[in-house]
Write a structure and sequence with these properties.
By secondary structure, the protein is α+β, with helices and mostly antiparallel strands. Helix content is 46%, strand content 13%.
Length: 90
């Protein structure tokens, strides 16, 4: 069951196109439903964002192909909007 889920997650990650560019100093993440969020690089030092990345690693694992695909987080768009608002006020 776990191996099936990992295969599905890997296939899902490859289906999300990265067709639009974004400003220098930002990075893009995608939610599980495919919604794109462009965030400033400064967020990489925030504790909330580090916890989100840790949870994504637990969910999807690391496949060793760093930089070859989009960053997909195991959350929906509403959660990411809420997390983004928390990071902005901190």
């Amino acid at each position: 069951m776990v191996s099936r889920w990992r295969k599905w997650a890997a296939i899902s990650r490859k289906r999300i196109p990265d067709t639009k560019s974004f400003e220098k100093g930002h990075f893009a993440v995608y939610t599980s439903e495919g919604k794109r969020f462009v965030l400033p690089l400064a967020y990489l030092h925030n504790h909330v964002m580090l916890e989100i990345f840790r949870m994504a690693e637990e969910e999807y694992g690391l496949d060793g192909n760093y930089g070859n695909g989009p960053i997909v987080l195991p959350f929906d768009g509403a959660f990411m909007e809420y997390a983004n608002s928390l990071i902005k006020i901190s």
